Batch of 2 targets.
Target 1
Amino acid sequence: MTHPRITRALASRNFRLFFGGQSVSLVGTWITRIATSWLVYRLTGSVLLLGVVGFCGQIPTLVLAPFAGVLVDRWNRHRILVVTQALSLLQSAALAVLTLAGVITVTHILVLQVVQGIINAFDTPARQSFVVEMVEDRADLPNAIALNSSMVNASRILGPSIGGIIIGAVGEGWCFAIDALSYVAVIGSLFAMRLTPRQRPPTTARLRDDLVTGFRYVTSFVPVRSALLLLSLVSVMGMPYTVLMPAISANVLHGGPHTLGFLMTASGAGALGGALYLASRRSVLGLGRAMAVAATTFGIGLAAFSFSRTLWLSLLLLPIVGAGMMITMAATNTIIQTIVEEDLRGRVMAFYTMAFLGTAPIGSLIAGVAADRIGPQRTVLLGGLACIAAGMWFMYRLPMLREIVRPIYVERGILAAAQLDGTTKTL
């Protein structure tokens, strides 16, 4: 069976199963995200608490991801994912029971957000590293990463819209219940896979030694360090706009849960477009420039969105924001997965998780405090300006990074294959 270039990674049976199961589960995840934000804002009316909830849900990733990376390199990644997905099901079920019983409090939400953050600290690096094992042809890895990003953002389009409708009709509790049920799909897909046993060499190294090895690799290898620094800056300064969306929807645009759903859907539509662009690319070459342009575009979109006072203009600007963020994130993932050493993949992807998700709680907390003082619009504006500066900095460093990466791409046959297609730039 042949697949078009944009979906070629789906030729791998295991990745196809994962793609289907995760697609269902992620819709439920986004339904829960919008329901959680709306529930917190409905209970408290506080933009500061929106930031605190975002902080509690993501700070465990910053603390635990390095340890999780070591375990991902040592343990069976498939089994780790089965466990993390089952625990996520239970977490969503707990939210549903408390909310439907009418006893949910902000304290309950904060505790359960921390629990989900701990689960994600192990789930995310395991899932990112497991993509390599699901794809039969290593040349399809960039396409698989892009398709995975497409799946995430297709769910961002459907999830918030469905969530907004469900909240308006029957309340937040049923959103959490649907999310819990959706995990059955991805757990089923994991059990249906046919995997070739991977022999991991026995290690006598202490956990601390493996942590130090991973840290030294990430901090001393300039291309990985620079890419993760760009992603961290964009995540800290730019991504918190999503935390402030309920306040912007209610106070600036004078809408309700449906308006919030429309805004998140518009951002998700742009992100999906960005992911499909990456999936359609023939080669990883030139992705460094794409990262720099995307980070700058993300910042410009945020700055423009901060001045919007009408729904129609916001819906025009947010796809630009979504596309910029998605290309920055997925291109970073692709470049790192292409150049990293296999025995360090789990640890490096754990640092990627820290850069993308682990630093976000810092940004969420800063954004919550700033929005409480200067308002959500000015907070979004400052974040956009910081992202523009970060993108320009990375563009300045590109020529030096290309020279370092070129020998790696030559050794792995990537540069020679791309030159046959007429592509010459390394990054």
Target 2
Amino acid sequence: MSRALFISDLHLAAERPDANEQFFRFLGEEASRAQALYVLGDLFEYWAGDDELKDPSGEPLAVEVAQGFRRLADAGVAVHVMHGNRDFLVGEGFLSASGARFLEDPSVVRISGQPVVLMHGDTLCTDDVDYQAWRRTARSEAWQREFLAKPLVARHQVVRGLREKSKEVVAAKPAEIMDVNADAVRDAFRRHGVRRMIHGHTHRPARHDLEVDGARCERWVLPDWYGRGGYLALDDVGPRLVSF
């Protein structure tokens, strides 16, 4: 039986040892028994560049995560990694070290005979106009080139400042504008011609049933790992959310 697992919004960081331990346990247990693992963004709390893996001032956890994926890939599990809003600078250096394959956002993949659109989910939150403007800036070649030209220590300082600012901004926003927009969701189903969607980002794990142009569709939202954490399993029987 084909079995694929989906995770997102782990936000791994040195200051979150419980989540880190759960992640490595997950790789050694649940993920090792799957045919494929899909990481749909925000694997890390932040990623300041692939020199995290080699620079003396880099985060040791980055190396441990890459090694964990490498062991999984070497054992025959296909590992796919998508950019999130926190770790969109993950690049070829990390992919080479980890044995993971880069997954575009969005991507349509066929799993257990059915096409599924996979997304991080932030592009569906179109009501958050300020965030979408920042996303366009941060994903631009000019911004990334200027940012990556800084020493890694300086990049860490910039990221910490951005994180603190983000906490203030998020706290001041109505919760509903940080969730997906219903029209954006339906547009995504139409554009990709699928009836199943899996994404993260919103930290609101659930299954949502909806109708798009007369077709029954389902949208699965992955859990974050700030609390219990969990994943979505998809096999020939169907999808199901699993909490730790």
